Amino acid sequence: MKLTAIATLAYGISTASAYALYGGYERMFYYYGYMIDADVNGQPKKVAPSCKQTEKCTFNEFIKYINDLSKPVSVTSDELPEVHTTAQKLDTLQLTGAYKISRYIKEVRDRVKRKESIEFARASIESVCFLRKFARSEALRPYLEGKKVTPVIKKEVFNGKYYDLVDEAATIKKFSQAKKMIQDFDKADPSHNDNIKASCVAAARLHGG
Question: Which helix (H) or strand (E) holds 163?
Fold first, then answer.
């Protein structure tokens, strides 16, 4: 198992503010990166090593640490919390705003003891990837409609539900002028598109093991 995918995402989005639901999923991803580090090294050494000096942080302690909060939080007592429900709870508790996190992860080839950590890390970052794409699609759709282009819509499944997303390739095929419109749309907010790429690349690399 390589932790380079986690490092890729950490550097890719650590300077961005993660808000709303995908901010919860990003925190889930970081937490399971922390747990993987603990599995590999016994005590976290590369991922948030200052969270706790002598043992691992609990999930609540980890959230308090990366959110740079002065008061304790109470999200879950589970050591390996379920990804989707916990991300939702983080959002409900308004714990998905700007965070402070400084991590440095070297490439590690040691065997990870808890396979759940890998699976949950993968599920977390795949969720970030999808939700960022969905947020972009939700902004792109009215943008195109405002320019008299009705985008082609495709359905994708996330967490057991269907979501409507703009099918960019099909839209461009149907309306040739849409290509330039989409390029202009992305130029207006390049950081968001970069965050999508960072999270989706990391998700793909985690699938590669």
Answer: strand 161-166
Which residues share a beta bridge with 155?
164
What does residue 99 show for φ and ψ, rounded to 5 degrees? -130, 160
Token pair belonging to 45: 């050494």
Please say whether the beta carbons of 161 and 145 come within 8 A: no
| Cα-based distances in Å from 126 to 49, 120, 150, 188, 207 | 25, 10, 28, 25, 10
Output the CA–CA distances (angstroms, integers) from residue 72 to 25, 62, 92, in the order listed.
Answer: 20, 10, 16
Residue 151's identity, in one-letter code, is P
Report the C-alpha gap between 69 and 48 in whole angstroms.
15
DSSP 49: G
Distance CA 75, CA 57 (A): 14
pLDDT per residue over 40-91, tens digit each? 788 887 778 888 888 889 999 999 988 888 999 999 999 999 988 999 999 9
CB-based contact 75:60 (threshold 8 Å): yes
Q: How far from chain centre, in Å, is Cα 45?
A: 22
